[in-house]
Design a protein that fits this description.
The chain has 15 helices and two strands. The protein is an all-alpha fold and 354 residues long. Strands 1-2 form a two-stranded antiparallel sheet.
Length: 354
């Protein structure tokens, strides 16, 4: 049975999901079709008994949004990456992929993604310093004071949104969107293939890292294969214009009933998107309000944990260099090139006596 804390945790993550969808809409993704992804995710959680929900990630949107030259390419990247990951998960290959690339290389890539996430947060702050700084300051104070993700999400988003509305004395202009499903034919070209592979690599890392972090909050073990299957299938919403949804570090994992709390979160977000409520809510929640929470996740949760896992125990010389290379190239290029460069160097280094 759901408790008050379960509901609060779900609502807290909803506060994160709403501005993230607004962010995704800036790249052309549609809210209503994204509800299909949330429906698949909620069903997948219940069937698999997974406590790790899926939602829109800033890192994913930033990656696909910047790598895709137009909406067709972005949707195609999301679709093909989703199909690839569903197959990988269905055949239990995600750990095989990790073993081939090298566990420390995957962690290094994920640490690089954490830095990318912090960079996204900083970019948001620069676009509206007043709102962004309040969001960041509130999130940092709460991180030091409580370390509770639910409080960080709710308070930082509400405080910065309220400050924005008080300063501007009016809501944001309504984001217009036609709530009608229409087929978006996928395209295939070099850029789409590269973007899909980059997104797939990001998904491998996030499913392992975020899946384990969220499951760890609940004291359970993550079912990474099941998570990979239903998160991959959820991206089929791209056929209709939906945004990619991936595993997340979710405060619902710390709720008394993490499974039900996570499902409730996705149901609420799905309803908000499919009923056309998002543009109305968007009037009162600026995108920059999530900057603080994103920075905390990137700088204090994702990067340190994965960087320690990547460098801890790495042999001096070739392995340490490969780990550092994967991290740096991920930040400078994308997760696929970062993962590939680290893995390739690790494989060829012995040929040169390194």
């Amino acid at each position: 049975m759901l408790t008050v804390q379960d509901i609060l945790a779900a609502i807290g993550v909803v506060f994160n999901g709403v501005p993230m969808m607004i962010y995704a809409m800036g790249y052309g993704f549609l809210a209503a079709p994204t509800a299909i992804g949330y429906a698949i995710g909620a069903g997948g959680m219940l069937i698999a008994g997974s406590v790790t929900p899926i939602s829109i990630q800033a890192g994913t949107i930033a990656l696909v949004g910047t790598m895709g030259k137009n909406l067709k390419e972005r949707l195609s990247m999301s679709l093909f990456a989703g199909l690839l990951m569903a197959v990988v998960g269905a055949f239990g290959l995600i750990h095989a992929v990790m073993e081939f690339a090298g566990e420390r290389i995957v962690f290094a890539m994920q640490a690089g993604v954490g830095i990318m996430l912090a960079q996204v947060a900083i970019s948001m702050i620069k676009s509206d310093r007043f709102t962004g700084i309040i969001s960041l300051a509130t999130a940092l104070v709460l991180w030091v004071w409580t370390g509770n993700l639910v409080y960080i999400i709710v308070v930082s988003v509400v405080a910065s949104s309220a400050a924005f509305l008080i300063k501007n004395k009016k809501p944001i202009e309504i984001v217009e969107e036609k709530y009608k499903l229409s087929y978006h034919k996928p395209v295939i070209n070099y850029n789409v293939i590269r973007g899909a592979l980059a997104l797939a690599c990001l998904t491998v890392g996030s499913n392992i890292a975020f899946g384990n972090i969220t499951a760890g909050m609940s004291g359970s073990t993550a079912n990474i294969d099941a998570l990979t299957v239903f998160s991959g299938l959820a991206n089929l919403s791209a056929i209709f214009g939906g945004a990619p949804v991936e595993s997340i570090i979710s405060a619902t994992g710390a709720a008394p009933n993490p499974l039900l709390s996570g499902v409730l979160m996705m149901v609420i977000l799905g309803v908000i998107m499919v009923t056309g409520l998002l543009p109305k809510i968007a009037r009162f929640v600026p995108m920059q309000s999530i900057a603080g929470f994103l920075f905390v996740i990137g700088a204090f949760l994702t990067t340190p944990v994965n960087a320690v896992a990547a460098f801890s125990g790495a042999a001096a010389g070739a392995e340490q260099f490969a780990v550092g290379l994967a991290l740096i190239v991920t930040v400078l290029a994308d997760p696929f090139i970062g993962l590939a460069s680290g893995t390739l160097f690790l494989r060829i280094a012995p040929l040169f006596g390194m």
